Amino acid sequence: MKPPYEITPKILKLISSISEKIGEVNANYLSKQSPQLRKQNRIKTIHSSLQIEGNTLTEEQITALIENKRVIGPEKDVLEVLNAIKVYEKLEKYKFSSDKSFLNAHFQLMNGLIESAGKYRKQGVGIVKGTNVEHIAPPYENVPHLMKDLFEYLKDSDELTLIKSCVFHYEMEFIHPFLDGNGRMGRLWQTLILIDEYPVFEFLPFETLISKTQDEYYKSLALCDKSGKSTIFIEYMLGIIEKSLGTLLNYNNRVLKDIDRLEYFLKLGIKEFNRKDYMNIFKDLSSATASRDLKKGMEMHMFKSVGNLNKTRYIVK
What we know:
The chain is mainly α. The chain has 14 helices and five strands. The strands form two sheets. A three-stranded antiparallel β-sheet has the order 3-5-4. A two-stranded antiparallel ribbon has the order 1-2. A hairpin with a 2-residue loop joins strand 1 and strand 2. Helix 7 runs antiparallel to helix 8 (182-197) and helix 7 crosses helix 11. The mean pLDDT is 90.
């Protein structure tokens, strides 16, 4: 059975806005980010997702761990970050529609933190906030087949990826298949589902906005539990995704920078070219800007030039 939810006017409006923004991202070549920006966004993703779970390490400390430097901090927090770094480094190896990949990722994420890393829970669990029991998860005996059904749902090609990613995130949190690590797995797997259709989500840290609106995040989950549908959570998450894309497009009021254009161009595998070839890829570029880009590429030893003036050709090293 397809998990229950309703398509509301708010959901339709958000999907339309997200689709427009993804088109703009692709048109501006922002989906081909520089390695440095990818690294910064990965740090933000790991920091925000673990901060939601109470991790105390800063972005600077996470950067140091990525660079294999020693960090002083709680042993558990350091291990959480090291595990997350390993998972995000091999995202392309996980298959979003595979429960084996899902369990493998949980093992990597929680290895050394809980004994049952990579295994569905074998006991009942409830979520307590203060003195109130917020949520009683389904009996542990039901978890394997509930998760199997959820992964079958992910294979539904008629379902919009944007909707599917939100529904999976909510339903997985409701099932609560693990003793610990459910929240970070929900956010990780939603990212993985989105990346399959929209590569830009590999480095779009929407977890940052979730961490800034944690109360709303948990409230939307709780309201869905009460209604028995994921509608409210879909509205919340699509709002987060839309704002994240907006942030990317407004990054320093950013149009594509020279280094981003050069890196994107070289990834096309062209071995020899002239300025006109370069401008054919970036059609809105003026001759003067193209010349400045190519001069920068020469200074950075990305390629060398032969010939003069209009007959100058560039040979990639």
